[in-house]
Amino acid sequence: MVSVAGLAGIAAVLALLGRYVVPTLWRMYTSPLRLLPGPSSPSALWGFVKVLHAAEASVPQEQWVEQYGPTISFKLMFGIRRLWTVDTRALNHIIHHTAIYQKPMAARYHLSRVLGPGVLIAEDQQHKNQRHVLNPAFGPSQLKEITEIFTEKANQLRDLWMAEISKAGGGPTRVNGLSWMSRATLDIIGLAGQHIPLRRALDDPLTLPGAGFNYHFEGLNPSGQTNELSEALGVLFNQGGRAQLFGFLQGMLPPLRLIRTEHTRREAAALAVMQRIGRQLIAEKKAALLADAREKGRGVRRRDVADRDLLTLLIKANMATDIPESERLSDEEVLAQVPTFLVAGHETTSVATTWCLYQLTQSPDVQAKLREELLQVPTDSPSMDELNALPYLDMVVKETLRHHTPVPASGRVAMKDDVIPVNTPFTDKKGRTRDHIEIKKGDLLFIPIQSINRSKELWGEDAHEFKPDRWEHAMEKTSQVPGVWANQLTFLGGPHACIGYRFSVVETKALLFALVRAFEFELAVKTEEIKKKGDIVQRPVRVEDQKPDLPLLIKPYRAF
Ligand code: HEM
Question: Where is the secretion signal located (predicted)?
Answer without folding.
Answer: none
